[in-house]
Each structure stands twice: as C-alpha cells, then as structure tokens.
C-alpha cells in the first residue's frame, strides 16, 4: 500500500473575508482593543458579543491565549496560592500549568479507558483533598456524562471550570460545552477549531466573576467598551480591588476569528465525516479499542484516539516509527519523555508526583492523531487502511 503524503500540521487557509478584515484593521492602525474612534465597536468587542451569542452565555472575554483564559478563570473564581484544584490525570500541560501559575496545587483524578474523568475517583479525591474547584479538561474533545458530573459537583459544593480547548462547538444533550459550570475556557490556537495563531475566549453567566476577569485582563477603566460584559455598576467595587494582569486579545486576531465563527458548525460536520472514515475502519481491527462516544455527546472530531491494549512499550515505539515511515503521524501518550505537545503527568515535575494506575494503564497504549481539514475523507480512509493493515499484519 502506498504511503500517505499529506501534512498533519497543515491547516486550511484563513478565509478571504477574515484576511480582508485583518487588512482593514492594519490599515487603520488601531490594533489595540481600546483604540477606537467615536462610535466605533472594536473587533474584539464584536467577537465577544458574537461568541457569547453562539454559546448562549451572558458574558464573554477575549484573551491573549487559551492558557490565559484558564489561569484568569481560576483567579477570578477566588483560587489562592496553596489551594488544591482538581483536574483530569489525562490532559495537556497548559491545564496543570494554569493551576500552578496561580500558586495552587493540581490534584489529579483518574480517567476511564474512554478518556473521560472517572466520577468515582473524582468523588474520592474531593473528599480526600478538600479541593473546592474542578478544572475539567474535555481532553481531545471527549465529554464525560455532564449531568452526572454536575450533580456530583453540586452535592459537594465544587465550583466547575471547563477547559474547552478541544470542544468548541461540541454539546452534551444539546447543551454547549462550556455552559455547565462557572466558566468555559476556549482556545483559538492554530490547531483548534477556529484559528488566530494564539488566542482564547472565556464565557460565564456570573457577573461578579466576569467583572473580575475583565479587570484582570487589563481593561483599566474601559470596561464599558465590552459588549458582552456585566452592567457597569457590577464593576463599582471590583474595579478598585482587582489587579491588572494584562492578557487582552487584540483587534487583529479578533478580526481574523469573527468570520471563522460563522463556519464553525459546518466545519464540525466536515471534521466528523473524517473521524467516521477512520473510526469505522479501526473499530473492526482486532486488538484496537476505539473510545466509546455516547449518544448524548455531539463532538467535534479535530483529532482521533485509539488504544492498543496489551501492547508493550517497545512495540508501541516501533508502531509509531512504522507509521511515520508510511507518512502517518501518530502521537503516543505512554512515552517516558515528553515529545512536542505530547506529555503526561509523570513529566510535570513542578507539581507533587501522584499515583494514577488506571490512567497510566490507559495512556500506556493510547495513540492520538490530528485530523486537519486539509485532508479529504478519502485521505482519512487511506490513513485508516495503513493503520489497520499494520495491526492486522502483526
């Protein structure tokens, strides 16, 4: 079988409408979100308003990055140095990094082999740790049973913050990801569902929380220029008590993102068609396990994951190498040392080491692959055949 020749890091071009909007911002020279002419609505404010409407949220803040959205959400929620914050044992480094950045301590919760947080272990860790906040990572776009999770949080007085870097556009039982807790944190980094290179969005229905986040983001006393913000009176005391930790999004990135938001749902369908082309083939291969996607979950499959239970570490390394020779770029989460964006909790030495046998057993044979929209459905079928042929031949 011929090797695959596509590039797993090549994104689609920025839409012409977005390029024109960006050029208009550059021609005007007003890249800073608060540098506006009388009566002008800054692109950053327009984006916040549009994304709040898309999410069905009351408020939205455009940030410099998804990681900033995570850290400012913790600060605005009242997390202080020394506090413990629960999060998934399987996530990417910016999530525990955001917890560490506010001086808090990550408490890692086991995951299931379907790559979602283990609710039984969550209940145990809540009781054992005394943590009052859960930063739930919808890692690689997999949604847990959100009704059950929210009920557990409510019963224990846990504040929920959602990391939605991989679930923009996703829903659980028709309710948008990011709309279940105090806050939803989204990323617009190049490999996410809308692309500004770097960027983030923070949503909430809580006025005091969002007022604090807006002040922290560096609004100075210009918060009334936000169109998806709480009423001005909400800021009366908060504006004097809240430190500036500048992390605003600029108008250039906002202008690039606005037209992409209009095509997000259509692109979700395109991603999912590519996912299905691969999942349908790999689900028939003995020795591979495709994580279960429940009917309540509407996901946006910009990546795909599968497990090879029982495969030894050396065999996993050889499998990744063979696939690379065939043009297929797989990431393996069981490696001892981190590789590029891929790491696991054992390499996060800035936090206390934690015992996660169930998570480690899952990550030991977990493989991950991007699905850029520059691939056709036929490309994805070809990739699936290459993976399946390798596994069926062993």
Explain this structure.
The structure is a single chain. The protein has 394 residues and is of the alpha/beta class. It has 2 domains: 16-261, 3-Layer(aba) Sandwich (Aspartate Aminotransferase, domain 2); 264-392, Aspartate Aminotransferase, domain 1. The chain has 13 helices and 13 strands. The protein has helices spanning 16-28, 43-55, 66-76, 94-101, 119-129, 146-156, 207-216, 235-241, 251-261, 264-282, 313-325, 357-363, 377-392, and strands at 59-63, 84-88, 105-109, 133-137, 159-163, 171-172, 175-176, 183-187, 200-204, 297-298, 303-307, 331-332, 366-370. Helix 3 (66-76) crosses helix 7 (207-216). The longest helix has 19 residues, at 264-282. The two termini are 16 Å apart. The mean pLDDT is 97.
Q: Number of DSSP helices?
A: 13
Spatial arrangement of strands, main beta sheet: 1-9-8-5-4-2-3
User: Which residues sit in consecutive blocks of at least 5 with pLDDT less than 50?
Assistant: none
- The CATH homology group name of the largest domain: Type I PLP-dependent aspartate aminotransferase-like (Major domain)
Secondary structural class: alpha/beta
Estimate the mean pLDDT confidence.
Answer: 97
Q: For the report, how would you describe the main beta sheet? A: 7 strands, mixed
